[in-house]
UniProtKB/TrEMBL annotation:
The keyword Cell membrane applies. It is a multi-pass membrane protein. Residues 1-27 are annotated as: Disordered. This is Sugar ABC transporter permease. The lineage of its organism: Bacteria, Bacillati, Actinomycetota, Actinomycetes, Kitasatosporales. It comes from Streptomyces violaceolatus.
């Protein structure tokens, strides 16, 4: 009688060597990872929304209520349209709006056209584009106060460099910041130099996206430089031009830093008093926060109405 074999059979070896069969996939693990990922994303989103709500939405809502309130010795009371009546009856109100409109028009003539021309010139050059882009954008990187003080030095009637240049060419010296007829133009020139770098780079990026075949076809048709700009460059950059126009109007209507630092805010005979500077006066010089909020609300409504009308006209033109 033979002894039993100690070697396991092939079937037993196969059972021991087969990998364990996994059960159905665990939904809990995938759901947990998805939930963690969504909570993380929503956490970052909620933080951004809270910051935006606290620093942007709350001041706007607070300003709306403050425009119809009056604070007297710490007591807040509703006064209805009294703050608006105070603003409308102020002689400086209409002067501030006229000055703001004048600044906006002059800023559009210089600040809207000059960056576009600069971008076209840089785009036509074959060498040194990087250095020119840096040179054009350099004023934007400077602190606004430093830039304004630089122009205040240039405009000085005694030792200013601008009058020295005028004297070298035999031109009469000017009272740039002291003359009511020149003060606003001086502010516009300083503001254009300070802010044109960003617009010029945006225009340059739009110009580099225009297909070269369009310019070649225009040259074959006998178009010169000006005709190529009018019939090719401007139509191809119409969208970015219109967007920059809207943004510049909104920005120029809120000008404050340049006239405040160059001319003290009001300027000679109130020639540089703007709407935002008048808001500053109501709030911090007259301690009339209700009138300041009312004037700010008027400016907000005007800019919102202009933006809505612009968007509606743009959609109608696209259709």
């Amino acid at each position: 009688m033979s002894a039993p074999s100690l070697t396991p059979s092939k079937a037993a070896r196969a059972r021991h060597t087969q990998p364990p069969v996994d059960g159905p996939p665990q939904r809990g693990g995938a759901f947990g990872r998805s939930l963690k990922r969504n909570l993380t994303a929503h956490g970052f989103l909620i933080g951004a929304v809270l910051c935006f709500a606290f620093f942007s939405w709350y001041p706007m809502v607070r300003e709306f209520f403050l425009a119809f309130q009056k604070t007297d010795q710490g007591e807040v009371s509703w006064v209805g349209l009294e703050n608006l009546e105070t603003v409308f009856n102020d002689p400086a109100f209409w002067q501030a709006w006229r000055n703001t409109a004048l600044f906006t028009v002059l800023a559009l003539v210089l600040g809207f056209a000059v960056p576009f021309v600069v971008a076209i010139v840089i785009n036509e050059l074959r060498h040194g584009k990087g250095y020119l882009r840096l040179l054009v954008y350099l004023p934007v990187m400077l602190p606004p106060v430093a830039s304004v003080l630089l122009f205040k030095y240039l405009y000085d009637p005694g030792y200013g460099m601008l009058n020295e240049v005028f004297g070298f060419f035999g031109l009469p010296e000017q009272q740039w910041l002291q003359d009511p007829d020149l003060s606003m133009l001086s502010v516009v020139i300083a503001s254009t130099w300070m802010n044109m770098g960003g617009a010029a780079l945006i225009y340059l990026a739009a110009l580099q996206g225009i297909p070269g075949e369009l310019y070649e076809a225009a040259e074959l048709d006998g178009a010169g430089l000006l005709r190529k700009i009018w019939h090719v460059t401007i139509p191809q950059t119409r969208l970015i031009l219109s967007l920059m126009l809207l943004m510049q109007i909104i920005a120029t209507m809120q000008v404050f830093v340049e006239p405040f630092l160059l001319t003290g805010g009001a300027g000679p005979e109130g020639s540089t008093t703007t709407v935002v500077y008048l808001i500053y006066q109501y709030a911090f010089n007259f301690n009339n926060y209700g009138a300041a909020a009312a004037l700010g609300l008027l400016l907000l409504v005007l800019l919102a109405g202009f933006s809505a009308a612009y968007v509606k006209l743009s959609r109608a033109e696209d259709e």
